[in-house]
Amino acid sequence: MAAHKKVAEILSSIRENGRRELLEHESKKVLAAWEIPTTRVELARDAAEAVKAARELKYPVVMKISSPNIIHKSDAGGVKVGLSSEMEVRQAFKEVVDNARAYRPKAKILGVTIQEYVPHAREVIVGALQDPTFGATVMFGLGGVWVEALKDVSFRLAPLTADDAREMISEIKGYPILGGIRGEPAADIDAIVDVLQKVGQLAYEFPEISEMDINPLFVFDKGKGAIAVDARIILEEES
Amino acid sequence: MAWEGIKAIFEPKSVLLVGATGIKERPGVISPALFTSMISNMSSSYKGKINVLDLSGRLSGAIKNLKDVPKKQDLAVLTAPPELALKGIGKLVGRGIKAIILPAGGYNDLQLEQLFRATVKRGVRVLGPNASMGVLNTENGLCTAFERGLIPVRGKVALISQDSDLGAAMLDWACFHGIGLSKFASFGDKVDVDEVDLLNYLAQDDDTGAICIYMEWIDEGRKFTDAIREASKRKPVSILRGTGKGTGRDEIFDAALKQAGAIRAKNIEDLFNSGIALALQPPMRGDRVAIISNAKGPAMLAAGAIERKGLKLAMLSEDVKKTIKSRYPGIDVNNPINMMSAAGAEHYEFTLEKVLADPNVDGVMVINMLRSRILKPADLEVVAKAAKKSKEKPVVDVTVGGEDHVLVRGVLRDRGIPTYDLPEKAAQAMKALYQYWQVREKVSEKR
Question: Residue B383: enclosing H or E segment and its boundaries?
Answer without folding.
Answer: helix B381-389
